[in-house]
Write the structure tokens for this entry.
Amino acid sequence: MRASSLSFRIPVLCAIAGMIMGIAMAASQNHSVMPAHAHLNLLGWVSLFLFGIYYKLHPAIDVGRLALLQVGVWTAGTVVVTIGVTMFYLGHQIGDPIAAVGSIIVLAAMILFAVLVFRPVPAERGAAAQVMPAE
């Protein structure tokens, strides 16, 4: 499986979960977990989908194991952050360190993404040097 495929599929699930959270908050008239809802939507839906676009635009990176690892680590971190923030805003203090661990996981995934973005890719290095004749 390509990293882009995962980065397009997982965000859809996150968006559905975020929408369910939003509907549940509206139905219960209890918006205390709004920060968790926002984290899930931003990290799980928006950011992960943007990674998918980047990977799709860079096929040499898209097929690599490192990109799949980055998507997996980001997804795990997003789930942990969302659980931690939800627990904290529901009044369970243990949620704060859980959210902190999730944040560190997400940071690690972003550093991994930075490595993928900034390292030279063999297929892209030579592309700029090639000159194609006009047809």
In short: The longest helix spans residues 3-28. Residues 4 and 59 are 9 Å apart (CA to CA). Helices lie at 3-28, 34-57, 59-62, 65-89, 95-118, 122-125. The mean pLDDT is 91.
